[in-house]
Write a structure and sequence with these properties.
The chain is an alpha+beta fold and 142 residues long. The protein contains three helices and six strands, in the order ααββαββββ. It has one domain: Nuclear Transport Factor 2, Chain: A.
């Protein structure tokens, strides 16, 4: 059994990364609501890769990410986003989210977010699927 003293650096690292993720997601939500290029750009490192779905060709670097983001931007205030962390492995965070739009659409989200030492994202991949607002399962229509 490891002594509590030996585990302290690992515990401090996990707390630091969890708070870095919280800060990053708060900034992401701010950018999502503002669609200001400077807010979006500030989220990402110079070498970042952003995929809005897993098989997408990534947008690489902050300027390309801003262009992709703005090409499909949501309107400010038309959605609510809630989230919780699922886990972390070597700086790569797994996040489950839910987005509820004012028009009734509901999406379930899974994000993979890599953060660098400065707390900027260096890799982002999103899975999203419409849920409560769309019939699901065998025989579903709509």
């Amino acid at each position: 059994m490891e002594s509590p003293r030996r585990d302290r650096p690992a515990q401090r690292y996990r707390r630091f990364m969890a708070s870095a993720l919280e800060r990053w997601i708060a900034s992401y939500v701010k950018a999502w609501n503002s669609n200001e290029p400077s807010d979006i750009e500030a989220l990402f490192s110079e070498i970042s890769e952003y995929r809005s779905y897993p098989w997408a060709t990534p947008a690489i670097g902050p300027q390309a990410i801003v262009a992709l983001w703005l090409s499909g931007a949501d309107r400010a205030g038309d959605h609510q986003f809630t989230w919780h962390p699922l886990g972390e492995d070597r700086g790569c965070h797994f996040v489950q989210g839910r987005t509820v739009y004012s028009d009734g659409r509901v999406y379930e989200n899974l994000w993979i977010v890599g953060l660098d030492a400065e707390g900027r994202c260096d890799r982002f991949t999103e899975w999203y699927m419409e849920s409560a607002s769309k019939p699901l399962g065998p025989g579903a229509t709509g």
